[in-house]
Specification:
It contains three helices and three strands; from the N terminus they run H-H-E-E-E-H. Strands 1-2-3 form a three-stranded antiparallel beta sheet. It is elongated, with a radius of gyration of 14 Å. The chain starts with a helix and ends in a 5-residue tail after the last helix.
Length: 105
């Protein structure tokens, strides 16, 4: 699920919103997020994906920062209240970068 913070980070993706591949999960009928979409494209592009996650703040109020690397280059940095939210925000930025560079349409 997308948090308001992720949506704010990914506002530049709004024009691509309908182009992302919506895949339903059989368990909970939710739409798959940006990470799933990115994981579908990267093998076709022969790119490796790596996340680097860092937690900061007080133990009862952590903020996660996730950096996504595609072929050892930074393609996105996301922040969130959980590691999953941070990775989702980073994947959103990575997809936007791939679209801007013409790797995916």
């Amino acid at each position: 699920m997308s948090s308001p913070y992720q949506l704010a980070l990914c506002s530049r993706l709004e024009k691509y919103k309908n182009l992302l591949i919506p895949l339903a999960s059989p368990k909970d009928n939710t739409v798959a997020g940006y990470r799933h979409t990115l994981n579908k494209f990267t093998p076709r592009l022969q790119m490796s994906v790596r996340y680097e996650d860092i937690a900061s703040g007080l133990p009862n109020n952590l903020t996660w920062t996730s950096t996504i690397y595609l072929n050892n280059q930074v393609y996105g940095i996301g922040r969130g209240s959980s590691k999953d939210n941070a990775r989702e925000a980073a994947a959103c930025q990575a997809i936007a970068g791939l679209r801007e560079q013409g790797w995916i349409s």
